[in-house]
Design goal:
197 residues, mainly alpha, Hypothetical protein af1432, 2 strands, 2% strand
Length: 197
């Protein structure tokens, strides 16, 4: 997958501007961290990592708890809204993570699909490769299109995504694991967590 293909996917699926801005900021963090790891002598597939960051939320609109396109900060067309409603109907039950994974596998890109799927909050215990850890971590540091602390992201994410009946103790356990992942990445790079970015 290349930048032109990614741009075409954004157009084809009418990806909201704010979702693209989020993916671009996640890509920026991935690039900073990848470059630091490469400079330290680690091997990783930077191209695949950056492309994964640029498509990880391609179908994110299907998971919006409150779907109100009038609140989107962009001019939109009837075609935009029609596509978003189609994606919500098609993928709403399986969610954006599985949807993008299935989409990429159907394109014949199973390794890429596996990497992209690892950005899901509940995948923390399955992260193995450096690319998976970087993508997961970068996504958790970006609230909309702003780089924020993990604690800030947890607070905002809980407000936006928590549903009645969610397992709060599991959420807190995962958040603690994410904080440990941040320390692991910082340790690998030989810096303090607050100096990662």
């Amino acid at each position: 997958m290349n930048k032109r293909e990614i741009s075409n996917l954004y157009k084809k699926y009418h990806v909201p501007i704010h979702v693209i801005a989020h993916m671009e900021q996640v890509k920026n963090i991935c690039e900073v961290l990848a470059d630091k790891f490469i400079k330290k002598g680690y091997e990783l597939n930077k191209t695949m990592l950056l492309n994964a960051a640029l498509v990880h939320d391609l179908f994110r609109v299907c998971d919006f708890r409150i779907f109100d396109p009038a609140q989107f900060e962009q001019k939109m067309t009837k075609e935009d809204v029609k596509m978003w409603e189609h994606l919500r109907e098609k993928y709403g039950k399986i969610g954006h993570v599985r949807a993008i994974g299935d989409f990429l596998r159907n394109r014949g890109e199973p390794k890429f699909a596996e990497l992209v799927e690892k950005h899901d909050f509940y995948e923390i215990d399955t992260l193995k490769t450096l690319e998976e850890k970087i993508l997961f971590y970068a996504d958790k540091r970006v609230d909309h299109d702003k780089i924020v602390s993990l604690k800030n992201r947890f607070s905002e994410g809980t407000k936006r995504n928590a549903k009645k009946g969610d397992n709060e103790s599991l959420r807190i356990e995962i958040q603690n694991k994410i904080l440990r992942l941040e320390k692991e990445i910082a340790s690998m790079l030989g810096v303090a967590s607050q100096h990662l970015l």
